[in-house]
Amino acid sequence: MAETTTTAEPTRRDFLFIATGAVGAIGVGALAWPFVSQMAPDAATVAAGAPVELDLSPIVEGQIVKLFWRGKLIFVRHRTADEIAAARDVTLASLPDPEADEDRVVAGKDEWLIIYGNCTHLGCVPLDFQGAYRGWFCPCHGSVFDTSGRIRSGPAPINLPVPPYTFVEDTRIVIGEG
Questions:
Q1: Which of 127, 148, 138 is nearest to 80 (CA)?
Q2: Could you tell me the pTM of the whole model?
Q3: Which of 54, 97, 121, 133 could lock 156 by a disulfide, CB 3.0 to 4.6 Å apart?
Q4: Which of 164, 157, 163, 129 is nearest to 143 (CA)?
Q5: How, if at all, do strands 52-55 and 127-130 pair?
Q6: In the chain, alpha helices (H)
Q7: Four-point Cα dihedral 81, 86, 90, 92, nearest 10
Q8: Residue 136 near residue 130, CB atoms below 8 Å
């Protein structure tokens, strides 16, 4: 005698079990999503401390680009050979805050000066290509900075600070890592 096997046809009950399970899984996922997503930092927190990447290739020689990192103004200046020479042809002892130009830039990338863009006196924004040294001039109280961002005269106590930055490629920097 030959044995036969029979397969059960799907029933309406099988469909209801599968449909109920799928709806339940979607419901659990929908309930879990807000709890999981609330553990990630919000956009303001990311923007407050996240590094900023900048492509330097469109910045022409002699141009200054302004951007914000951590809510602070940053000047990125593509210096000319004359500006670099003027910044280096200075007796350090004559500066109120002596610092060599070579210490304010990355070696081999002397044409790129990256500094904070607020006067170190009271935080005003200095005007670029102004003053006796063609660097920056603070219109609030008269501080004068040279093409290396060093204080040359006026009430500002220190040079314009250099933020932490690194070159990730020849024409690309990341401000906030360094």
A1: 148
A2: 0.74
A3: 121
A4: 157
A5: unpaired
A6: 12-37, 43-49, 81-88
A7: -70
A8: yes
